[in-house]
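Re: your question about Phosphogluconate dehydratase

S., sorry for the slow reply, the queue was backed up all week. Below is exactly what I fed in.
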Amino acid sequence: MTTTLHSTLLALREQIEQRSKASRTAYLNSLPQGPQNRTAVGCANLAHTTAIYPSSTKRVISLHKSPHIGIVTAYNDMLSAHQPFVDYPEKIALHARALGATTQVAGGTPAMCDGVTQGREGMELSLFSRDVIALSACVGLSHDVFDGAILLGVCDKIAPGLLIGALGFGHLPFVFIPAGPMETGLSNSEKAKTRQLAAQGKATREVLLQSEEKAYHSAGTCTFYGTANSNQLMLDFMGLQFPGGAFNLPTSPQRQALIAESVRAIESATRNPALRLGTLVDSRCLMNALVGLMASGGSTNHTIHWISVARAAGYLINWSDLEVISSVTPLLTRVYPNGSEDVNAFHAAGGTAGLLATLINGGLVDGEAPTLWGTSLADTVAEVLPNAETFSTRKPEATRNREILRPHDDPFELDGGIRLMQGNLGRGVCKVSAVKHEHRLVEAPCRVFTDQQQVIDAFDRGELTQPVVVVVAHQGPRANGMPELHKLTPLLGVLQDQGLPVALVTDGRMSGASGKVLSAIHICPEAKAGGPISRLRDGDMVRVDADEGLLHTTANLDEREPMPTPPQAVSHGRGYFQVWRNTVSSAEEGASNLFAE
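Result:
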């Protein structure tokens, strides 16, 4: 495989390095420079640490005779994706003991399910939960007695939150161990069809419930390619979990072998200073992950999350950088909602190993970037995977289904799945990979709402019968925590299927599962900050052009006052997060309190 990188990506990486020189240096200088030394830890501290262990193990840990590995887990059984983690600490400990190492659960983090909170009050806590997870990971690691750590977390805000928290301890090596997807249930097309029928009142609640239960039916991640599975692909691309292993089923022999291999890797990494997390997560690592996001048509949520991950490592990236990456990255996968098949079919077609290999060969992923395995990304894919049949039965670079995965020189689209949108309404992003070309330009009068229930009510009253740009304002991080507006997808899809030109403009988020309706989201400045969308009124002409990346209105917004700010609800724990809403950064800055200026 060639590792010569595309000239545009090389130039962008140099720009990021230059603009981030001071912040990256400050981050690296903030990390402890020497190796962990438990013999310097106070006796009372160590006694607390080892209180649960037999005497023989106490001495191994206290005298620092072998690596002591922490585990930070986001296990709960509210999330099907995280339920398999219930016995991971025990399995990890068993494999570690075979290597002479010890393990300890350092702490747990909260992990909410957006699939449960969609359209409900709890969704307003969803984005902020990422920073809570980062902070709680830091609490678990604060005991400072570990030589490295294992991170158990899969879903939307959880994996980014764990990674952000771990970067605060970047002097240690870390590895993610994923849990894998559930087996394929009801087809995504059938699920979407039933949702749209229900939105029109043509399917009963019982029919809809049975459909959803057939789709979400067992332990493992949801099988569509949303935010959770985008997390997994990006971590594979970063070399922080075994490349090619993300989508093995939870019950498969490969999954059990992957746990053992990951423990072996982290145990070995504790003796190699070059593999500490703060060193591994550099500009090459971050850009590789973002190329993977674009090439796979991944979730728009990562246009927020990975900006925060980058900032945690001292790098300053923005949506213009993502636009450059997208412009030279071909779209190589078709996985629902960008296609009809799910991540299990993607894995069978070649999966992350196949995608990685062809992108490295095409000069779009830097194969020289190191991995936790101590080998380069290219060597891990080209040499480790083919010789480890336990983990992969696919030959990297090969695709078994060209309708799902294609080589870099025969893409589905010439550019990536995410587009920067900008104009006199601000800046935002659009996921174009799932939007048909004939739906990528909408110019129509707008209807302005301040929450998604108002849109649903207008739809139910039969008010949305003409071409329309639906504007949902005051959904940004400062307003109400930036909830996903996924419940709008079925009804807007109904309007589009009826032949109406329809688009969505919002300062909120859409689910990683959203797709076929043209949507300009994450608009900055948000309405709460006095952004231009706060001055739109019903009937204003709005142009949403994903081909040109244009978000424009012909209305004279300068002559108007912003719309009144809706009252902020405080029930269901939302009041406790008001201080976060008051200080959060913009979506393009990662919508974070941890890095707000």
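The longest helix spans residues 253-269. The CA atoms of residues 163 and 309 lie 7 Å apart.

Happy to talk it through on Thursday.
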